[in-house]
Each structure stands twice: as structure tokens, then as C-alpha cells.
Amino acid sequence: MKLLSAAQMRALDRHCIDVLGIPGLRLMERAGEAVAGAALAMLPEHPGTVLILCGKGNNGGDGLVAARILQQRGAVVEVVLPFVADDLSPDARAMFDLAIEAGVSISDSITDAALTDAGVVIDALLGTGVTGPVHGVMSELITRANAARDGRGVLAVDLPSGVDADTGEVYGPAMHAEATITMALPKPCLVLYPGAALAGCWQVADIGFPCDVIADWPSVGEITEREQAASWLPSRPRTAHKSSIGWALIIAGSFGMTGAAAMAARSAYRSGAGLVRLALPASLVPVLNAALIEVVFLPMAETRYGTLSFHAVSRLLAEADHVQAALIGPGLSRNAATANAVRHLVSSWPGPLVVDADALSAMAGQDALWLRRTAPTIITPHPGEMSRLLGKPVAELERDRLATAREAARRLNVIAVYKGAPTIIAMPDGSAYINPTGNAALAVAGTGDTLAGSIVAFLAQGLPAPHATALACYIGGLACEQITARQGLRGMTSLDLIEGLPYAMETISR
Q1: pTM (2 decimals)?
Q2: What are phi and psi of 223, to 5 degrees?
Q3: What average pLDDT does the chain have?
Q4: Helix 401-412 with 383-390: angle, nearest 10 deg
Q5: DSSP annotation of 159
Q6: What 3-state class would DSSP assign to 306?
Q7: In sequence order, what DSSP letters do the residues of 349-395 get, joined into one string?
Q8: Angle of helix 494-509 versus helix 447-460 axis, rounded to 10
């Protein structure tokens, strides 16, 4: 499902009106019908009047349509419109006149009694036009509604007023909604925090844009959907054998950090790899040999600190002919000699490569080395690692997570997996997937190693790099949701997550 920025949505609206000849009033009528339907669905749980807060733009026009339809369907409706009719947009003014003709009660201010009596409050104040803090009467309406409702029974039209449509940023007062009905296609703020937390449960309303136009319209990204993930899932024919399924190499581990290597290797197997080769400092092989009986170990030259030595580079590069994809980074340490080896391996590795954890730190400030690569490259930074890669403060990067992921992908010519809520998968060409699965149970050590192992497994099985990456994110998040549905949000471990990966894949393949 595509995500459209505010500008892209406005352009699509104008195209449908000016080029395709779809009347703007018809689109507004369809939008208002959808709002009314959503409000009626909320009334049984929140009985009372329907209070509609309207702005002077087309968002307010949608609210005025909803008011007329709700009244026709027997609801008790009150509209608050703190503007004179001449201030309204042309289409909103037309809907204002129709509402007056229908006998809808419209006032220019809100009372405490109106807020108290309302079962459902419809937020039709601002829509996608917010680019800074909300001031004046709009700020007052939002603040009073939030104080009285705390989101209960609040339905936002398109998006909660006060939220930046493109980034999800909140600059000042913003409506706290229980539900949002968004027109035609979702906006980034519905999945990007903190705006996503204010939108509640959201749904998309079909207001009449042609499907073929939507399919070809530019977007800032798309939300991965279950059917899409299922279509990417590698097949497993009856004639399959370990070599046909795919071999993966994992370069990981250091003294005191064997767990990261183990989790990445287990995850790769649980994600369907036919064989996993694990290259790690030679002294650590006995530590993991008994625990990882399925893994083929490659003991590597090491430093006196128990980390990967630069002397291992040539042997590792020779392994490229024996595997379909490689992962480097989990638990490698930030030892200077190891970092030097990482830089040489990343810039020289001839095949698909996932770069994670300590390998990302080793590659910070090495833009030229990234650009040497010609095979698919996936990076998996959390905000701190992304900060080191781009040389920018975490706070700045987090203000627009989608833009951050896209910048990293373009600048380094990689697929950038920006881990967080939500995880964003950005490609060098500017396209992006936004992962909708997962929850706060993923905030535990080792889930990043698990994700990296899953990505390299799907690469080894022959998936194109964008699909392998988006699928791994989707499956990992789904496994997390299934686990927490059984045992609650707290206490999940990465080993739990790894064991849940096959069940998640089975779920979407049915």
C-alpha cells in the first residue's frame, strides 16, 4: 500500500479534478460519506451526540458533508466552525450551504457542555496542511478536545490535526484520536512516530480515484502487506537440497560476544538457509561448536584480543565462491585491526552482503568504500549507528526517519534498513518499504542479530535484495506479534524470536 506525501496527495487530487474531470465536490461528498460511516460505527461504543470540529479548508468541507449525512441518518449533530462562510475554500463553502439547508446546527465556538455530551468528536480541522505549530483558535479547539476526551471517541479526518503529514512530527498542540479515516491513500504520519501514536487505528477510504492512476502515481514509499510478503517467500520444491536452497556465510563474533554470532547463524537456518558457514576467531570455535551442531565452522586468524585479524581477509574472500550471500558484523568488536579487516572485506566482497552492528561502526566515514561495491549491499543500522554513518545527531535523524533512511541509501548506494518504530527499508533509487509488523517486545538484545541472519538467509535463497530485506523485517515482526499474543509484551528473548520465524512464515504462506 502506497504512502503519499502531502504534496503528492494534493497533486493527485488536482490531477483527478483538472485532468480526469472528476468534480471536486464529488470527491468531497465521498470523503464525507466515509467519515460519517466511520463515526456511526463508533457511536455504539461511544453513545451521545456527534460533535464535528471543522476548519476552513477541504478537511472542514469533509466534516460538513459528514454532518449533513449523519443528521440524515438520525444522529444528533453539532458543528463548530470558528470562521465566517466567506473564509471557507470554495468546495467547503458549497458544503456549508448544503449543511445549512439541511438544518445542521453550526456554531462558531465550543462549549464544555458540547464536549461532555458528545459520544464522538470528529476532528476535521486541519488535514495535511500543517508545517509548524498550530496557533490561535485551532490550538484552543485541539487543546480543549484533548483535555476533555483523551482520544476516547475522537475520529480524525485524514490525519490528526497538528501532526506533520510527511514526518509524523508534532510541533505543538495536536489532536489525540482513537481512530483516523484517511482519504484515498495513507500518509507517512500514520506510520511514523510520534504522529502514529496520535492517529489510533486508521483505515483508508476509497473516494473515487481511479485504481490505474493510483498504481502509477509517485509515492514516498509503501507499507509491506501480508500478501506481498507471501509472494516473496522462497518456494521449497520436493526436489530441494541444501545446495539448491542456498548457502550463507556469516562473519561474526569476538571474545565475550559469541552470542551475536550464534543468534545470527540460528536465525539464518530458521529462515530457510540450506547451509550456514560461520567464520569467527579460531579460539571461539570450541565455545560454539557444541551449541551450533548444524553450522559449518571456519576458524579464522585472530588478534591477541580474541577478535578477527586482518590476516583472515584473504581466506574469507576465497569463501565467496562457495556461498550465495554473506553477513558481516554481529559481535565483531570495534578492535582497530578488526575494523581494518572489515573495511577491506566490505569494499572487496564480490557478492550480496549484509553489513550489521560493529561492521557498520568500522565503515563510518568511509563513503568511498561503500561506493566501490557493485553487488547488492544491505545495511541494518539502529539510530546510533546511523548517526555515525551519516555524521548527524540522532535527534535530527529521528525527526524524519523516512528521509534519513532514503538519504543513507542514496548516499552509500545501499539498501538501508533503519531499525526502529517503524523499521524502514530504503533503496538507492528513493523507493522504500515501511514495515508494519512488530511491537515493543523487540526492544531486547539480539533482535538485530536475528534480523541480519534472516536477511542473509533470504538472499542466499535467491530473493532480490529489496524483497529479501523487506520479507525478513516483516517475518521477524510477525513472529514477535505471535509470541507476545501468547505470552505478553515483556520477557521475549531473541531465542524465542528465532524459534518463531518458521511459524510466521507458515502463517503467511497459507
Answers
A1: 0.94
A2: -85, 125
A3: 96
A4: 50
A5: S
A6: coil
A7: --S-EEE-THHHHHTTT-HHHHHH--S-EEE---HHHHHHHHTS-HH
A8: 40
Cell reading at 79: 458543528
Beta-strand ranges (E) seen in 66-165 are 77-80, 105-107, 118-124, 154-157
Who contacts 98 (Cβ-Cβ below 8 Å, separation ≥6)? 64, 65, 68
What is residue 108's DSSP assignment?
A: S
| Beta carbons within 8 Å of 272's beta carbon, 6+ residues apart | 234, 236, 245, 246, 457, 458, 461, 505
With residue 142 as reference, give the H or E element that holds it.
helix 136-149
Which one, of 130, 186, 125, 187, lies nearest residue 156 by Cα?
A: 125
> In whole angstroms, what is the distance from residue 308 CA to residue 330 CA?
12
Residue with cell 536465525: 267
Side-chain-facing half-sphere of 137: CA atoms under 13 Å: 12
The per-residue DSSP string of 164-213 comes to -TTT--B-S-----SEEEEESS--GGGTSTTHHHHH-EEEEE--S--HHH
- Rounded to 5°, angle at Cα 138 from 136 and 139: 70
Q: What is the mean pLDDT of residues 498-510?
A: 95
User: Which amino acid type is present at position 368?
Assistant: A
Cross-strand partners of 313? none
Convert the pLDDT of each residue in 71-86 to its tens digit. Answer: 999 999 999 999 999 9
Structural contact between residues 476 and 494, judged by C-beta atoms closer than 8 angstroms: no
CA distances from 416 to 4, 261, 363, 403 (A): 20, 21, 14, 11
Q: Which three cell numbers stand for residue 294?
A: 548444524
3-state secondary structure of 98: helix
Residues 111 and 339: their CA atoms lie apart, in Å, by: 64
- The amino acid at 390: L
Residue 160 grid cell: 490528526
Best CA proximity match to 183, nearest among 163, 164, 156, 162:
156
Task: List the Cα angle 29/33/38 in 5-degree steps.
Answer: 150
Domains of the chain: 2-219 (3.40.50.10260), 226-509 (3.40.1190.20)
> How do strand 424-426 and strand 415-418 relate by DSSP bridges?
antiparallel
Non-local (6+) Cβ contacts of 144 within 8 A are 110, 115
Count CA atoms within 13 Å of residue 215 on its CB side: 3
Give tens-digit pLDDT for 232-279: 999 888 888 888 889 999 999 999 999 999 999 999 999 999 999 999
CA gap 154, 101 in Å, rounded: 26
Residue 290 has a pLDDT of 86
